[in-house]
From TrEMBL, chains A, B:
Signal peptide: none
Entry keyword Chloroplast: no
A Pfam family reported for this protein in Swiss-Prot or TrEMBL: Iso_dh
Pathway: Amino-acid biosynthesis; L-leucine biosynthesis; L-leucine from 3-methyl-2-oxobutanoate: step 3/4
Quaternary data: Homodimer.
SUPFAM superfamilies assigned: Isocitrate/Isopropylmalate dehydrogenase-like
Name used for this protein in its record: 3-isopropylmalate dehydrogenase
Metal-binding listed as a keyword: yes
Job description of the protein: Catalyzes the oxidation of 3-carboxy-2-hydroxy-4-methylpentanoate (3-isopropylmalate) to 3-carboxy-4-methyl-2-oxopentanoate. The product decarboxylates to 4-methyl-2 oxopentanoate.
Cofactor note: Binds 1 Mg(2+) or Mn(2+) ion per subunit.
Protein species of origin: Medicago truncatula (Barrel medic)
Length: 358, 358
């Protein structure tokens, strides 16, 4: 029997509810495929702050590092919003990404045919959207130094950050993106602001140089402001997008909202080796936390991604993906994706319905 | 007779066509209101590069500085895309903004009732959208130093930029935004990434401190990734948005695309004193340049803004605004906003129709 260690990080808000559903689906699905999964739950974010005073306890990071894959719920909430930087839940997440060296963040934006009307975009614009944002996750302005607060030559206070990319950081994320584009529609769009920023000019230069190794992938370039427009105007033009940490943060959220069903979208963060980090794209939704209203689909699909990309257990992963589609087809919906004629259920019951379809 | 000097910067692509229409409308409209307008045309962008070797000739900057207002068409094109940074058309525009010290960029995103179906968003989502993005224009990562290309401690090549804001830069743009929000719906949303970036934490701190002086304005804060989503999900929630240079670049383009009629939207860039810079939001559209297909509405509305905000000639400005609406109501459209049952015309003829309505 193949056996794996999974670290679960429920986090804050609706995190614990959706993680609990995903766990209840992972276990029996694994058994059906001869996989033994061993779970350990650890603290991250606000939950960790409240219990230990830091957003990423050493114990959490070392458990995550020693496991085969990490499944995260969501972090953050109003309660900790005014904390100083090193005591923010978000800082724990950034430290985790850095600690695991998961530099490649894959964020699919797919419109489910059953949910196309949930998009605010016209049906003909939203229908069939299926794109992947490959976001650099451990570099750029999120981690660049120098950063902080200072005083300028006029004695005035300042706040500053550094957007910086080294050659290998660009090359490794570009390679991931070229490989993904190759397996998808064969089109890669690199998004930057090379008409203004040196960091972007350098980014573009490295991506262009690498393109020679991927002659079967059609590479294009787009400025980030234009990309933000094109996602609204005609999202179907995109297959795979690769971009830096901050532009990827913005564009992947925009792209996921275009699908209208952000509660459906998983994400994957991978490094060169070591465990991957799997999490829903949505946040901790503190306003509905603990009310059994959360949509667990995105976390369940993240669990499927964990099986596929994290453990190489493709069949078990596809069983979960099929179960999700079947549950959608059987009409079960949480409030965020409910529409006339479908069946409104809570987070827990939706989990049970998915399990029936496994 | 009141007399003003206007510098016209046609620029590249469709720039000359739309500027020529705007000029032909400004002159007679001015006369009707006892205003004498004196125009001088200068080179900027690719046109300036080709003629003089630099994207902003000294002569252009000093003419602009000595005039009462500057009207710009558009700059850039494939031809100069691979130029080195100091020889890019865009660099000329950035130097002009810096030279004129126009730190406040106002970008309205308004859905015209006549054009609501041009939006890719569902009618009920797009209808009635009327928001203003106030973008900081002469600071942040666009101008921050150090910037450039370097070598890191491992001997690896890097590209880098600095996002930096000093107190007075934040305060002055925030004041502009509070004042605009006050005259509009009384709601100001400051967009930042204060959960990650020190530059954003400092931004938020200054904006919060200033809010005391504007008790009648309802201030909120939103992370930039969430703002990119909310613009798609429910754009009507926004009244006035204030944000930094790069986030403003991205979000204002996204917001303008949401209206579906980017060919309709003007923009204004103002400093503390000195001439303002007025330009359409759209780019130089090199693919349709010289074909009499460009939509001149945005430049004509920029000319109206020039009269209103640049010269304080409110009545003349409103005459142009009314003429634009009347021309829309009379059914005249360029190709970008054409729909069944309306009258397709070229750039020049649309200008003549607007003039008839003046
Ligand atoms: C919570 C925050 C630090 C994080 C980010 O900006 O990366 C989030 O927005 C995300 O995209 O995962
Ligand atoms: C052309 C470019 C330098 C410019 C910018 O990024 O500011 C443009 O995108 C704009 O928004 O006016």
């Amino acid at each position: 029997k193949r056996s794996y260690k999974i670290t679960l990080l429920p986090g804050d808000g609706i995190g614990p509810e959706v993680i609990s559903v995903a766990k209840d689906i992972l276990l029996p699905t694994g058994s059906l495929h001869g996989i033994k999964l061993e779970f350990q739950e650890k603290l991250l974010g606000g939950a960790a702050l409240d219990a230990t005073g830091v957003p990423l306890p050493d114990d959490t990071l070392s458990a995550a590092k020693q496991s085969d894959a990490v499944l995260l719920g969501a972090i953050g909430g109003y309660k900790w919003d005014k904390n100083e930087k090193h005591l923010k839940p978000e800082t724990g997440l950034l430290q985790l990404r850095e600690g695991l060296q998961v530099f490649a963040n894959l964020r699919p934006a797919t419109v489910f045919p059953q949910l196309v009307d949930a998009s605010t975009l016209k049906r003909e614009v939203a229908e069939g959207v299926d794109l992947m944002v490959v976001r650099e996750l451990t570099g750029g302005i999120y981690f660049g130094k120098p950063r902080g607060f200072g005083t300028n030559e006029n004695g005035e206070e300042t706040g500053f950050n550094t957007e910086i990319y080294a050659a290998h950081e660009i090359d490794r994320i570009a390679r991931v993106a070229f490989n993904i584009a190759r397996k998808r529609g064969g089109k890669l769009c690199s998004v930057d602001k090379a008409n203004v920023l040196e960091a972007s000019m350098f980014w573009r230069k490295r991506v262009v140089a690498l393109a020679q190794e991927y002659p079967d992938v059609e590479l294009s370039h787009m400025y980030v402001d234009n990309a933000a427009m094109q996602l609204v105007r005609y999202p179907k033009q995109f297959d795979t997008i690769v971009t830096n940490n901050i532009f990827g943060d913005i564009l992947s959220d925009e792209a996921s909202m275009i699908t209208g069903s952000i509660g459906m979208l998983p994400s994957v963060s991978l490094g060169d080796s070591g465990p991957g980090l799997f999490e829903p794209i949505h946040g901790s939704a503190p306003d509905i936390a603990g009310q059994d209203k959360a949509n667990p689909f995105a976390t369940v699909l993240s669990a499927a991604m964990l099986l596929k990309y994290g453990l190489g257990e493709v069949e078990a992963a596809e069983r979960i993906e099929r179960a999700v589609l079947e549950t959608l087809n059987r009409g079960f919906r949480t409030a965020d994706i409910y529409s006339d004629g479908t069946k409104l259920v809570g987070c827990k019951q939706l989990g049970e319905e998915i399990l029936k379809s496994v």
